[in-house]
Each structure stands twice: as structure tokens, then as C-alpha cells.
Amino acid sequence: MKEITRSTIARLLATENITVVQDNVSTASFDVKHRILTLPMWADIATFTQDHLIGHEVGHALYTPLDGWHDATCNNGPSFKTFLNVIEDARIEKLIQRKYPGLRSSFIKSYKKLLADGLFGASIDAINKMPLIDRINTYFKCGLMSGVIFTAEEKVWLPRIESAETWEEVVVIADELYEHQREIEEQQKSEMRDSEEEVEDDLDSEAEGGEMSSDLDFDGDYEDDP
User: For the chain, how many helices (H) and strands (E)?
Assistant: First the structure.
């Protein structure tokens, strides 16, 4: 796809005169404040991946609010941005494909190739060892057939994300999921501390027991040893 064609299509889809640039970046992005759509300079990029990247970023142009995005990321710290971005990606991709159904084929083909190329992880086994938010990201981008696994407890988040229609819903889900993950991490840290304390107690007990055993060995059996 030529540069002029790519820019024209992006502007048409976005229904506004956004700026489209190509740069040496790792992935596509859209600056919601300055209205700049940046596309990566990937070698041998397939047409369907070009269409997918444009469609995704135009989805942000159409549906991601500048003020809401800025406030949410600033109020909750930098790590919260990952949760917000993953859930918002799921929403805007659903909306842009609903608005432009012709993009669906490009999204499916592109994500299938990107998954095979290792963009989401070296393998599905590696992906399934990742934190919940990363697996959610792969699931909503690559689909049910990607092989992403969730526990029964984790699955309750999927229909909520899938049904989100508004930015406000995205923020609520991201807040709750972020807090849920923080609680899990705190619990894991607590369990690790308890485990370390148990190990230390065992070592202390063994040390005390070892001193007693040494005395007994010396008094009774030492001379009989070879």
C-alpha cells in the first residue's frame, strides 16, 4: 500500500483529517491529543496487517476520549495504563469492526500471523504462564482458537470485557481488575514471606538439633567410626 493511499484510507475511516506518519517504531500507535497515527516501518508487511493496524488506531481516533484517557492514567499510576489499554483495545476493535465489517478479515489474518510470529509470546505455553492481563490481551486479539487458558475464577472477567460498550465501562473494569491483580500479588508476597519464615524456623531447629547430635556422636560412637 503506497503512503498516499494509506494516509487517505486512515483519514476516511477516522472521518477527520488526522496526520498519518511512518516511523521506525515497534508498533502502531495513535496520539489522541495531537491526532497523529504512527505506523511502523516493518519489512515485508502484509497488506492485511497494514489494514489491521490502520483500523485499530482509527478505532482509538474515533472512540478513545482524550480527557478520559489522560485522567485515568494519571490518577492510577503508570502500571495501570497496561490494564486500561488492554481493555480499551478490546472495546475499540469491536466497535471499529462493527462500523467497518470489511476490516474483520484483515484483523483475523493479521493477528493469526502476529501470534505465529511470536509477537505475544514465544509460544502458547509461554503465553499461558503470563499474568492474567497479558493472557486477556492475547485472547481478545487472537480469539478463542489461540489456545489461551484461564482458570474458572479468571473467566468471569471475559464476558464483562467483551460486553463493554462505553469508555466509562472500560475504566470501571480496568480499576477492578487492577485492584484484583494487586491483591493477588500481595497475597503471593505474604505467602512467600510466610514460607521463608518457615524455612528459617526449620533451619534454626536443625541447627539446634545438630549441636545435640554432634555431642552424642562424639561421646558414644566416634571411636567406632572408620
Answer: 10, 3
Strands 19-23 and 36-40: parallel
Alpha-carbon separation of residue 61 from 2, 19, 211, 216 (angstroms): 21, 11, 72, 79
- Output Rg (C-alpha) for the chain, integer angstroms: 26
Q: What does the chain come to in residues? A: 226
Q: How far apart are CA 48 and CA 42, in angstroms?
A: 13
Q: How far is CA 201 from CA 63, 197, 210, in A?
A: 56, 6, 14
Yes or no: say if 59 and 101 are a contact pair by the CB < 8 Å rule.
Answer: no
CA-based nearest residue to 39, from 48, 26, 47: 26
Cell triple for residue 108? 483475523
- Identify the segments of the chain with pLDDT beneath 70: 1-4, 70-75, 194, 196-226
Pairing of strands 29-31, 36-40: antiparallel
Dihedral (Cα; 55, 61, 63, 67), 10-degree rounding: 150
pLDDT digits (tens, 9 = 90+) for 129-182: 999 999 999 999 999 899 999 999 999 999 999 999 999 999 999 999 999 999
* Distances, alpha carbon 119 to alpha carbons 18, 77, 97, 115, 180, in Å: 27, 26, 22, 6, 26
Spatial separation of the C-alpha atoms in residues 214 and 115, rounded to whole Å: 60
Instruction: Give the span between the Cα atoms of 146 and 203, in whole angstroms.
Output: 46
* pLDDT tens digits, one per residue of 202-214: 565 655 554 433 3
